[in-house]
Design a protein that fits this description.
The protein contains 7 helices and 5 strands, in the order ααβααβββαβαα. The strands form 2 sheets. Strands 4-3-5 form a 3-stranded antiparallel sheet, with helices on one face. Among the domains are: 90-203, Fusion Protein Consisting Of Minor Coat Protein, Glycine Rich Linker, Tola, And A His Tag, Chain: A, Domain 2; 205-216 and 243-274, no CATH class. The chain is α+β, with helices and mostly antiparallel strands.
């Protein structure tokens, strides 16, 4: 190789080296200008477990349970404790007083309304001998059918119904121990029904006599009833015949003056029958 060729080779090699260097520098700058992706990171969760060997070796000291705080309330002066069944006082009603001699004398001569005064006085005498009625299962009522002989002796006694065996037993014992009673007012056997109330909330009210001379209202009769044979007819309501003036005058002589207790009892019964708890009804 001559000298000229040797210089040409070195010139070509130097040119290639310069170009390669320029390209490398350009590539470095272009790479820095490109956006770089963030590096992917991975998180590792490490759970620290307690050392079980220490717990097995030395058990932890247990503290005593804390006592619950007690709430103390001041006693209220407005609300009183409700009484129990043992503390509640049971209601009671003492036996009424026995009829006096004057009451029996009046009953022995009063003939109106099936010897109304005699029947009432007899029931009051029986109830007075039964004692005090106390609230509870032993209280109740008993109804008898009684027949009294003309001389005042008991001829027949029949129990129609009873709501308390104790009340029936006490009533029968009182009837068996009745004193000698006056003769019946009419001189005939006296047959009637009587209810004896042995209760802490019921008592025998005195009767009212002022209406005893009035005729009894006619019994109800069904105007549409028919026996199937007689001719059909519709009868009007029966009207009681006016009383004889002489008989009415004799009847009025037997009527006593009603007591205040009898009037009050009558007003109470009417209020219980016709009264209403709803106003305006």
């Amino acid at each position: 190789m001559n000298k000229r060729q040797h210089h040409a080779v070195w010139a070509a090699a130097l040119t290639l080296a310069l170009h390669a260097g320029a390209l490398w520098v350009a590539g470095m700058r272009w790479g820095d200008s490109l956006p770089t992706k963030p590096a992917r990171t991975q998180a590792v969760l490490v759970q620290m477990l307690p050392d079980l060997t220490d717990k097995v070796r030395t058990p932890p000291a247990t503290s005593p349970p804390e006592a619950e705080p007690q709430v103390v309330t001041a006693p209220s002066v407005l609300s009183a404790p409700a009484p129990t069944s043992e503390q509640r006082v049971l209601a009671s009603m003492a036996a009424p007083a026995a009829p006096s001699a004057e009451e029996w004398a009046f009953a022995a001569r009063y003939t109106l309304k099936n010897s109304k005064a005699y029947r009432h006085t007899w029931g009051q005498q029986v109830r007075s001998m039964m004692g005090t009625a106390v609230e509870g299962p032993d209280q109740g009522m008993v109804r008898f059918r009684i027949e009294i002989a003309p001389d005042g002796q008991l001829h027949r006694l029949q129990t129609l119904w009873s709501t308390s065996a104790v009340a029936e037993r006490l009533a029968r014992q009182a009837i068996e121990q009745l004193p000698r009673l006056p003769p019946t007012p009419t001189g005939q056997p006296l047959v009637f029904e009587k209810t004896i109330a042995f209760s802490a909330f019921a008592h025998e009210d005195p009767p009212i006599y002022k209406d005893d001379c009035k005729p009894d209202p006619p019994a109800f009769s069904n105007p549409f009833a028919w026996d199937g044979r007689s001719p059909l007819s519709r009868a009007g309501p029966a009207r009681p015949a006016p009383p004889d003036p002489r008989e009415l005058q004799e009847c009025m002589k037997q009527l006593p003056q009603d007591s205040i207790e009898a009037e009050s009892a009558r007003d109470r019964r009417l209020l219980e029958q016709w009264g209403s708890v709803r106003p305006g009804r």
